[in-house]
Amino acid sequence: MRDHPQPRYQFLIIQKSPLYESHVFVIAKYSQKFWSSVYLATQHGQRQINLSFTKLSLRQSVIIASILITGLVMGMRQLGWLQFLELVAFDQMVRLQPDAGPNPRLLVVTITEADIKKQWPISDQTLSQVLANLQQAMPKAIGLDLYRNLPQPPGHEALIEQLHSPNVVTITKLADPDGEGVSPIPGLPAEQIGFNDLVVDPDGVLRRNWMYAQEGKDKFYSFSLQLSLTYLGKSRDDLKVKSNALLLGNTVFPALSADAGGYQNIDNAGYQVMISYRSPEKVARQVSLTQVLRGQFDPNWVKDKVVLIGTTAPSLKDLFFTPYSANKTTNPGTPGVLLHAQLVSQILNTTLDRQSIFWFWPEWAEFLWVWTWALIGGLLAWRLRHPLLLGVAGAIAAGCLFSICFSIFTQAGWIPLIAPTLALAIAAGTVLGYKLLHHTLRDALTDLPNRSLFLKQLEWVIADTKLHKKSRFALLFLGIDRFKVINEGFGHQFGDLFLFNVSQRLKACLGNRGILARVGGDEFAILLKNITDSSEVTFVADQLQKEMSLPFKNNGQEIFTSISIGIAFNQTELDYQPIALLRDAHTAMYRAKDLGKGRHEVFATGMHTQVVKRFQLEIDLHRAIEQQEFFLCYQAIVCLKTSKIVGFEALVRWQHPQHGFVSPAEFIPVTEETGLIIPLGKWILKEACHQLSVWQAQFPADPPLMMSINLSGHQLSEVNLVEYIQQILKETGINGQSLKLEITESVAMNDVEAAISILLQLRTLNLQLSIDDFGTGYSSLSYLHRFPVNTLKVDRSFVSRMEETDEDAAIVQTIIMLSHALGMNVVAEGVETAAQQAKLQVLGCEYGQGYFFSKPLDSKSATALLDSKFTKSLKEEAA
Q: How far is residue 695's CA from residue 859's CA, in Å, rounded to a whole number?
């Protein structure tokens, strides 16, 4: 029987390596470099913020972050915060190792629950008989794992005689700090006595073998070590004690240090080694005490073996938790005699079979190991963009880390697992967070400050000027002229490359004279600080424009462009907001574009009036949509052959509550720019379809009346457009064949493949499709035949001049012939005279639309028009 004391003999002095201090120095050095770039300080009453760390490349951030995180994790490890998790990982790897099976050199005689029910305490006579029976089979060593310092008559003399056999080893318990211990059996020589104190970790699990201790001239040998020496035929003189190891012949048992493996500042009393576990239940062959007494065992099980005698009965509570005790609630623990069998097995296998003793890395190697995985985590976060892909890669990296640690563990190497895993995860998260911050404050394409960071920098400069009244600065807003043409003509990929080259050219030209930022798609801003005269600013603007007038190269082709620049100066007497100053420079830039591009303009107060008017219109549009201030007018579409109304085109109108009628030419472009065309377009679709359903019920015709509705480019790219139209058709009950959607030629050609894709989806609803304003855009005949459209609408500009010039008449004729060749019908817009109608009819145009037939009418007037036409038609049919 034994308690579970922590040993009081601490004889190995573990000195901290100065290497750790050098680690701290390096970490502090990098930490200062990294965090000094992000500081908030007060100096002379002025707040200064430096976000220059955003200028660090992501690659530098990975290296710096990995070093910092390694220092953080190693600091946590030094504090012992990771020890519990490292021990849990150690236990898991122990359980994953293949079972080596019973050690053939050992036999355990167990005192079972059945044995103690017959007799407890076991009498000296019974033990002496057991020893005598075992000795007859000639074991090399017998270990009695029972305290027998007090006689248990009868048969005490017979037991003492047996115990004096040179191959018998007994146990003692060393005195703890309170002076409590168990003395050895009196009269036995020292080489037949070993302490059976076992060292348990803070979590109550036994992982270490305490082999030897020394205090002054007193030497203490463990029970397992004494048994092993007896089995090996070695004396105590064969055991050499060094400062950091025990030497048994040629076998070295390195002493466990206080921070070896996953430990941190453990009690490393005496000479300890990690236990190389076999499965506790299979460490050795077992026979019961009763079987030995009855001679029911094979003598070969005992001959030349180490025999241990001890209790395995759970009721005696001589149990210890081991790495195999995964669940301490359901697993009562491993009996002490089986643990001693583990320890003896390890010593013998190490000495005779050259089994490796657990080895550990020095602290500097562990630091490099943790840093390597921190670097891997940082690199993964740096290289991989998609979170799911990063998660999968992180899981694979963690799996590789565990595989490496486990492979080394199977070769008796215990290297940190939790610390590098933590470094891997923290580094990945940190770099990912830094990357998000970098992308939040920097433009992804040019790596220039973005709009948010530029406004913050502008705010700091404005704050400086309030403290230094004479300080002046200027803001330049740059827009690339004709960039849309370049982007659409050469493709978006070249457009991105072009913007990058523009940024590099601007940066090189500007030098250190100001802060350059990208604040929009093709728009840049420059902040010039500490200027003394406005001529300095215009000089910089002239230089920039001169630089940008030089051609750009694209596969040997020269591309020319220019920039328009708006300039806004600060006025110290005014309380500027950064966004307002940027807006002023932006307004001046648009003024420069309006005046001919490739020039610069200084902001004047009058420029703001037009911008305010534009903003007010946008605000009014928001309100108009919410309060339904819009209404629809309908312009008739007439069959030129019969002069019958075949349908209407829905046209939106706005009656402003204060300003009266607002022209569509004024508000439609604003809805396009602001995205308000989406809710407005949905309302138009729903309202027009509802009106069509009313007319179709009121004026039945064959084919039914049709409704044409314009779709903008924004609507065409809306993801749920098809579902929304399908819902409206279902709600209003009209057939899709009665609904014709019109898109302009320019919208169709803006992204041909996308337009064809969405039009094909719309055709699944049995809708009719039309290309509006045909002939005014940049159509390609190679694409036109691929558009799944039913109708081409001839633009009014050709129809109106058809009688004046042969060229326009020829264009109209060509469009009609092309349409018919492609299986489409034609609608002519802007028909205003009978002569135009007659000419179109001769050319084969099917339908017409214009003031000659009807101007746009509200629903009530359009209903009256239909009623008159419908009544007239009935009379003609009756006649």
A: 10
Task: Please give the helix or strand (H or E) that residue 432 lies within, else none.
Answer: helix 418-441
CA distance 200 to 363: 24
Does the pLDDT at position 182 exceed 50?
yes
Looking only at the bridges linking them, the beta strands covering 552-554 and 645-656 are unpaired
Query: To the nearest whole number, what is the mean pLDDT of the chain?
Result: 85
Q: What whole-number distance in Å separates Cα of residue 303 and Cα of residue 105?
A: 9
Q: Count the Cβ atoms, other than its own, within 10 Å of residue 648.
A: 29
Q: How far apart are CA 72 and CA 74, in angstroms?
A: 6
For residue 50, is pLDDT > 80? no
Chain position carrying tokens 């009121």 = 698
State mean pLDDT over 649-672.
89
pLDDT digits (tens, 9 = 90+) for 206-238: 999 999 998 888 899 999 999 999 999 988 888
Residue 108: which pLDDT band, with cuts at 50, 70 and 90?
very high
List the one residue out of 536, 529, 537 whose CA is nearest residue 566.
537
Q: How many Å apart are CA 205 and CA 200, to the nearest integer?
A: 5
- Tell me the percentage of the chain whose pLDDT exceeds 70: 89
Task: Give the single-character DSSP code of 79.
Answer: T
Strands 552-554 and 523-529, sheet pairing = unpaired
Q: Which residues contact 659 (CB under 8 A, 6 or more apart)?
A: none
Q: What are phi and psi of 260, to 5 degrees?
A: -75, 145
User: What is the distance between the alpha carbons of residues 348 and 106, in angstroms, rounded to a whole number?
Assistant: 10
Q: How far is CA 193 from CA 198, 235, 833, in A?
A: 15, 13, 127
Q: Which amino acid, 200?
A: V
pLDDT > 80? residue 789: yes
Give the alpha-carbon dihedral of 53, 54, 57, 62, to 10 degrees. Answer: 70
**Closest by CA position to 837, among listed 852, 823, 826, 822:** 852
Q: What is the pLDDT of residues 867-878, one digit of tens each?
A: 888 777 666 655
Give residue 730's pLDDT.
92
Preceding omega of 154 cis (within 30 degrees of 0) = yes
Task: Locate the DSSP E strands across 428-542.
Answer: 473-480, 515-518, 523-529
CA angle, 553 as apex, 549 and 559 as ends, to 5°?
50
pLDDT of residue 609: 66
Whole-number Å distance between alpha carbons of 148 and 177: 23
Distance of CA 459 to the CA centre of its chain: 32
Strand 630-639 to 847-849 pairing: antiparallel
Gap between the Cα atoms of 698 and 692, Å rounded: 10
pLDDT at 53: 38
State the pLDDT at residue 757: 86
**In which band, very low, low, confident or very high, does the pLDDT at 555 lie, cut at 50, 70 and 90?**
confident
**Can you spell out the DSSP letters for 809-840?**
HHHHHHHHHHHHHTT-EEEEE---SHHHHHHH
Q: Can you tell me the distance from the alpha carbon of 4 to that of 18, in angstroms, rounded to the nearest whole number?
A: 35
Characterize 125-159 residue by residue with b for buried, 16 or more Cβ atoms within 10 angstroms of its Cβ, and e for exposed. bbbbbbbebbbebebbbbbbbbbbeeebeebbebb
Residue 416: closest CA among 361, 497, 482 = 361
- Would the pLDDT of 24 be above 50? no
In a 13 Å sphere around the CA of 161, the CA atoms on its Cβ side amount to 9
Residue 607 — pLDDT band, cuts 50, 70, 90?
A: low
The dihedrals phi and psi of 287, each to the nearest 5 degrees, come to: -135, 155
Cβ(382)–Cβ(70) under 8 Å? no
For the segment 424-432, the average pLDDT, to the nearest whole number, is 91
Distance CA 280, CA 324 (A): 8
Q: What distance in Å separates the CA atoms of residue 374 and residue 69, rounded to the nearest whole number?
A: 7
Q: What is the structure's pLDDT at 3?
A: 45
